[in-house]
Amino acid sequence: MIQIEGISRSFGERLVLNDVSFTVDRGRMTGFVGGNGAGKTTTMRILLGVLAAHAGRVTLDGHELTRADRARFGYMPEERGLYPKMRVQEQLVYLAKLHGVSAEAAKASASSLLERLGLSERANDTLESLSLGNQQRAQIAAALVHDPIALVLDEPFSGLDPMAVDVVVGVLRDYAAKGVPVLFSSHQLDIVERLCDDITVIGGGKILASGSREGLREAHAGREFEIELSGDSADAGWVREQPGVTVTHLDGGYARFEAESDAAAQAVLQVAVSGSRSTPGAATDAAGAVSTATSTTVRRFAPVVPTLAQIFKEVVQ
Ligand SMILES: Nc1ncnc2c1ncn2[C@@H]1O[C@H](COP(=O)(O)OP(=O)(O)OP(=O)(O)O)[C@@H](O)[C@H]1O
After folding, report:
1. Could you tell me if the CB of 70 is within 6 A of ligand 1?
2. 312 lies in some domain
3. Do 199 and 233 fall within a single domain?
4. ABC transporter domain spans which residues (predicted)?
5. Average pLDDT of 266-284?
6. With a 6 A CB cut-off, is 50 part of the ligand 1 pocket?
7. Which of 47, 31, 140, 128 is CA-nearest to residue 92?
């Protein structure tokens, strides 16, 4: 596990990181999100030792990070660092060898990554001759080619089309599945939401929220619920009459409502179900939903959980 503990950093008089702490667990993908100038790149640079912290420390599995540890990290910096005039495969092999990988292993690793990232056909082209999206794939390959013990990627998805995003997501997931801690920053909240196990939100140099994706969504869930009835003539209009409930959206058998309490919300479910039960011939289907003789079914009842974009807006305000 990588632990960032109480990191602070100023540029001149300006404090740009203020007591930043969060963890990047092994085997999990951690998304690092924040607005422009929030402090993501500065944090990543400190993590990699490219920049010094003025306070705090970074540890790996409990010991302070050494130069040797950092040399085995995979880093994709904000300012992309490959040589424009060098051929892609040659460049990857060269970088792997710089990290101490044998020539043979470097060639094998470069070929396999180029294949995986859909760049095999461009292996002998110079970087500058590739499209921006393909240059980005090559940058990702460069961060991975020495089989890193941890991955720190600054905006790895910028400039990638949706197909390429899926390819890169698959590759990164494989690294996480091997037990590698993976930290990446992104402004594309939909990708972060889809990809991440854990999320850290930074704003104005301070950590505003940090935790598992599900934990954050639950913690920021309001008192809004939704119920969906299906059937011949499903009508959720009766929810409006329930005590302690305000319907915010109604469409046939679908109602979204705010409940004063969990009990008020549960009462809606009970009415939906017991209404069904009081109907002769009620039956439970294979999915456990209760059907009536007129075949009205409670298809769904759940709290409305916010998207990452909604949580982000809430914590950044
Ligand atoms: N070398 C530097 N000298 C002075 N100020 C700096 C330097 N590097 C970063 N900063 C300032 O530190 C703050 C945080 O910048 P940083 O690049 O870490 O943000 P970020 O979250 O990565 O932003 P973005 O999403 O726009 O890339 C910004 O206000 C930036 O101007």
Report:
1. no
2. no
3. no
4. 2-229
5. 66
6. no
7. 140
